[in-house]
């Protein structure tokens, strides 16, 4: 596979009611091939604000709810060689995008942001969340035989040609009443990381400083979302095991049945 040394870039920005933050975030973005805003049924001026600030922005409506579904819709809409996952709340620093691109053009399939490496950090994470992240990160390293430092961080970039490997829920599927499909919620970063690891792709960690959210409050819930990540790790380890057995048996079309947790409606109302 030949990849460009000067790749075109798509920045995918999932957003729901983030008009005030987009006023600050969008003008900071570098000049790239395209910016795709994935709107989650916003009731404020999110879409109008985005179009005013970036007249050339592409707006995609997500098909279900949750950050995972928003990203899946954005990934499929992207046309750049590289996709950058970029939050709308101001926590991601656009000045770091060249470092992600450098990791990819140097040979990585996936550039994973880390707040815990040299030159990394966070202005927003609480001690409790940091402790939980450390525990979940340690478990993922044990389960998958890796040595990564920041499992749950959502600032990542990757070559668009690996999207099929992620095997995210088809965007046209309908979620069960009061529920979400596996991978539609905040577990999405864990799902993506686990599937990239299971596929044997090359991952490079990129130091990143998480900035403080500009306006509003995060939809992330420390305990409920942490438990969801834990369930995701166990399910993805089982999936990786089944895929490994299939490959050794020469089977290339296996889609193993994955355990699908039932997410409580109240738990996910804000996702």
From TrEMBL:
Q: Name one GO molecular function term.
A: transferase activity
Q: Does the keyword Transmembrane apply?
A: no
Instruction: Report the InterPro entries cross-referenced here.
Output: Glyco_trans_2-like (IPR001173), Glycosyltransferase_2 (IPR050256), Nucleotide-diphossugar_trans (IPR029044)
> Which keywords label this protein?
Transferase
Q: Which residues form the Glycosyltransferase 2-like domain?
A: 10-161
Q: Which Pfam families does its entry note? A: Glycos_transf_2
What family does this chain come from, according to its entry? Answer: Belongs to the glycosyltransferase 2 family.
Protein name per the record:
Glycosyltransferase involved in cell wall biosynthesis
